[in-house]
Amino acid sequence: MSTQLFSLQGRTALITGSARGLGYGIARGLAQAGARVVLNGTKADTTHAACRVLEGEGLHAHALPFDVTNDAAVAEAFAALDAEGIEVDIVVNNAGIQFRKPMVDLDPADWRRVLEVDLTSAFLVSQQAARRMIARGRGGKIINIASLMSQAARATVAPYTAAKGGIKTLTHSMVAEWAQFNIQANAIGPGYMATDMNEALMNDPAFDAWVKGRTPAKRWGQPDELVGAAVFLASPASNYVNGQLIYVDGGMLAVL
Ligand code: GCO
């Protein structure tokens, strides 16, 4: 089997929300597989700092801070890439926030904010990327970061759950409209991963025990454990894979 099957040499990947957390881990993994990675975050300083760390490891990285929920900012970001001759072949829609509160107490503004970051941003960024992929005629890859909540809910995270359910079916819409242009759209569903978004949960002894008891692997996942699925879905190895959601969850959704 050719090792080129999983190589990302010569490809450019834009990963939203990649200055830290899961996005940074995925970006680092794609870069190690040969891609030039475009890091994104809302803050220029932390995005450039993350970029410098990857460059320090000899990886090919470019910082592009912009607000993924603002359609004008997204369009400007892609115009800036155009001006630099940077063509995005792979998009990882990772940007996401969490907001935990019972629905009866939830401020509608908080609901809207979560949906904007966790779902609408994937549409805005993918729309700009797909327009260019279609015009170039050489296809592309879109990887949407879903969640356990794309499939099952728990109390107090309704906006996140609604957004991640939407991410699953938005992926199907991308297949319906863009697979004909050799664009493969798929998703990755992380389980309970040890990230700063979940720090409060990890530090809660009861929740920590629940995760470890409910997960067949009996542990939290690590951000770099998403890299294998990401490299697969970003590489030629997945050129006939469309609309799939790969759960990297230690088996949680496989059992009652
Ligand atoms: C929560 C967590 C989860 C995980 C992850 C699971 O509050 O239950 O934040 O949503 O982060 O999304 O797939």
UniProtKB/TrEMBL annotation:
Could you list this entry's UniProt keywords, alphabetically sorted.
Oxidoreductase
Family matches, as Pfam families: adh_short_C2 (PF13561)
Query: Per its record, what are the GO molecular function terms?
Result: gluconate 5-dehydrogenase activity
- Its Enzyme Commission number(s) read 1.1.1.69
**Which domain of life, per UniProt?**
Bacteria
Q: Which InterPro entries match?
A: NAD(P)-bd_dom_sf, SDR_fam
Q: Which family does it belong to?
A: Belongs to the short-chain dehydrogenases/reductases (SDR) family.
What is the protein name stated in its UniProt record? Gluconate 5-dehydrogenase
